[in-house]
Design goal:
Elements: E1 12-13, E2 23-24, E3 48-54, E4 59-64
Antiparallel strand pairs: 1-2, 3-4
Domain Fibronectin type-III: 43-69
Main location: membrane
Keywords: ATP-binding, Membrane, Nucleotide-binding, Receptor, Repeat, Transmembrane, Transmembrane helix
């Protein structure tokens, strides 16, 4: 077409030069509803500082956010 080439979004690649779309690298994903120019993401790391508290009727869990979201 008349449009110039653009780089693939982060964590994605093409399978050939001049490709019309970019696929996510291994371990990275894009939701079906996400646009093809959206970066691919991966699952977050585990939550940090997990604390559990148990009594006769309940269990309460507290944690800090993951290091890598």
């Amino acid at each position: 077409g008349d449009e110039g080439c653009v780089h693939c979004p982060i964590n994605s690649r093409t399978t050939s030069e001049g490709a019309t779309n970019c696929v996510c690298r291994n371990g990275y994903y894009r939701a079906d509803a996400d646009p093809v120019d959206m970066p691919c993401t991966t699952i977050p790391s585990a939550p940090q500082a997990v604390i559990s508290s148990v009594n006769e009727t309940s269990l309460m869990l507290e944690w800090s956010p993951p290091r890598d979201s």
